[in-house]
Structure formats: structure tokens, C-alpha cells
Write a structure and sequence with these properties.
By secondary structure, this protein is mainly alpha-helical. The chain is built from two helices and no strands.
Length: 67
């Protein structure tokens, strides 16, 4: 997959200048990130795989135990 269009658009949006020397490393990183995403997306997940409880902050005024 050619990540060049995305790299160019993202760099322009963020105001980054990617030099000719940096471009192979940036391209290699995007290839690696795409491989990792494919691995994660390939996992068969079910509702039982929910990550856990949701963090709900407590006001410091209420102290511990008050929810």
C-alpha cells in the first residue's frame, strides 16, 4: 500500500516538513502501523471482550465512598 498521499496530507495539515532523508523512515512507520492495525482488526471480538468498567471521577468535595 502506498501511504504517500496520506503522509503528504497529514504533514501539510500539521505544518510538518518531511525531508528526503526522513521520508523512508516515515513510510516504514506507516507500513508497520498498518500491519499492527490489520492484526488488531483481525481479532474476533465478542461483547464478552468489553474492556471493563468505565472511570467516573468523583468530586474532591465529596471524598471517597460518595458516588
Amino acid at each position: 500500500m502506498d501511504h504517500t498521499p496520506y503522509i503528504n496530507a497529514a504533514a501539510a495539515t500539521l505544518g510538518l516538513k518531511i525531508t528526503a532523508e526522513q521520508r523512508p523512515g516515515v513510510t516504514r512507520f506507516f507500513g508497520l502501523a498498518a500491519e499492527m492495525a490489520d492484526l488488531v482488526n483481525g481479532l474476533p471480538l465478542t461483547p464478552a471482550d468489553e474492556p471493563g468498567q468505565v472511570f467516573r471521577p468523583v468530586s474532591p468535595d465529596l471524598g471517597e465512598g460518595a458516588a
